[in-house]
């Protein structure tokens, strides 16, 4: 059976996804194209050899609509013969793109494929594709009386269920910023980042933040309406313990060991196991717990076998609840910082996590890395990669 290996990966620095952010004037197609161009230049690949470009995007509306990945391939200057497809598994879209790429290589459908993702939250604001629309439909509403809830409320329900304190949430967020700032100071991100325009580092990292500053932030999700439905909620999630809005893109080159050898490429890792799982759509963000159990079981590994984790920091309680259930060592989780500091450009985040995870394994000499991503609707991707000795 063929395997699937990652030859290389690259991402942009992540910009602030609001008006005035570093990429506010960059069309999302061009933002995506920058990662694609940077990837093929690094590897020395003739883009005519690419069998497909699989791109994740969440806000598939406006400037990110109509198969934006195909437009990005054209904008990158790839030959017209190179196809592209855009997938949506919400925040896990580009992690799913990586899974689809690996599956295609193992099956023999692809020899050389790019897995990528993009999101311009400054130009396509979060929720744009849902405005004025009933995205769930009457049957889902009947199954879940009262309807689904916003993700911020889900994060509050998770904090309540797992008994997490405001101080724990703030401390986790503080650590994310400190780790990300240290990673930039040490040059640990340099190899994975392709600067764009004048942005050379991630724009939303706040190394100056303090526990006191975080403790002073209000809880924006508090609403009596939800207490009428769920009972008393000790509101404690803030903007500080939530991921910011971001713009960014990332891309990975996936092929087989045989094709890599024929090109003279030294793969950095192989995609060991990838899976997807689902959980309660009201709590919504807990899917990473069964997804982690499932991917470990399929891989024949234990949580102790994993040398580094990338768990998307949509909100502090998501990662802390996951840690409480899995027993993972937090010292191995998001060691270069996470989405609360680096940023969460929705459709690009899965590819960004994989790119960072490769860098962590290279720096530390670890063998196995696991990444997992919570997603709207209660689904979650989990992927294990195995670093290969060069």
UniProtKB/TrEMBL annotation:
Residues 5-257 form the Thiolase N-terminal domain. It holds the Pfam family Thiolase_C. Gene3D superfamilies: 3.40.47.10. Keywords: Acyltransferase, Transferase. InterPro entries: Thiolase, Thiolase-like, Thiolase_C, Thiolase_CS, Thiolase_N. It comes from the Bacteria. Residues 266-387 form the Thiolase C-terminal domain. PANTHER family: ACETYL-COA C-ACYLTRANSFERASE (PTHR43365:SF1), BLR7806 PROTEIN (PTHR43365). Belongs to the thiolase-like superfamily. Thiolase family. This is Thiolase family protein. The lineage of its organism: Bacteria, Bacillati, Actinomycetota, Actinomycetes, Propionibacteriales.
């Amino acid at each position: 059976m063929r395997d699937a290996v990652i030859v290389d990966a690259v991402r942009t620095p992540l910009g602030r996804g609001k008006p005035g952010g570093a990429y506010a004037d960059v069309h999302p197609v061009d933002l995506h194209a920058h990662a694609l161009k940077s990837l093929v230049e690094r590897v020395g690949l003739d883009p005519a050899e690419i069998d497909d470009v699989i791109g994740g995007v969440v806000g598939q509306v406006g400037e990110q609509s109509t198969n934006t990945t195909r437009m990005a391939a054209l904008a990158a200057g790839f030959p017209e013969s190179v196809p592209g497809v855009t997938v949506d598994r919400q925040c896990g879209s580009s992690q799913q793109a990586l899974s689809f790429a690996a599956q295609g290589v193992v099956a023999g459908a692809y020899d050389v494929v790019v897995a990528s993702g993009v999101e311009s939250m400054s130009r396509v604001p979060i929720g744009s594709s849902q405005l004025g629309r009933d995205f769930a439909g009457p049957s889902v509403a009947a199954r879940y009386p009262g309807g689904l809830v916003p993700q911020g409320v889900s994060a509050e329900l998770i904090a309540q269920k797992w008994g997490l304190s405001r101080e724990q949430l703030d401390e986790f967020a503080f650590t994310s910023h400190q780790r990300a700032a240290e990673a930039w100071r040490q040059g640990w991100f340099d190899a994975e980042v392709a600067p764009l325009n004048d942005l050379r580092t991630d724009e939303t990292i706040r190394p100056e933040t303090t526990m006191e500053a975080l403790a002073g932030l209000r809880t924006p999700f508090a609403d009596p309406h939800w207490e009428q439905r769920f009972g008393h909620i000790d509101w404690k999630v803030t903007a500080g313990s939530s991921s910011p809005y971001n713009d960014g893109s990332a891309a990975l080159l996936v092929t087989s060991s045989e094709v890599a050898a024929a090109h003279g490429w030294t793969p950095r890792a192989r995609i060991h196991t990838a899976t997807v799982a689902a959980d309660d759509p009201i709590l919504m963000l807990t899917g990473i717990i069964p997804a982690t159990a499932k991917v470990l079981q399929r891989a024949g590994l234990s949580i102790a076998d994993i040398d580094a984790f990338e768990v998307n920091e949509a909100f502090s309680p998501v990662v802390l609840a996951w840690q409480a259930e899995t027993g993972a060592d937090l010292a191995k989780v998001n060691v270069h910082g996470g989405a609360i500091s680096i940023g969460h450009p929705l459709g690009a985040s899965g590819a960004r996590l994989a790119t960072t995870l490769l860098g962590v394994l290279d720096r530390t000499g670890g063998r196995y890395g696991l990444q997992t991503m919570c997603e709207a609707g209660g689904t979650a991707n989990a992927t294990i990669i195995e670093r290969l000795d060069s």
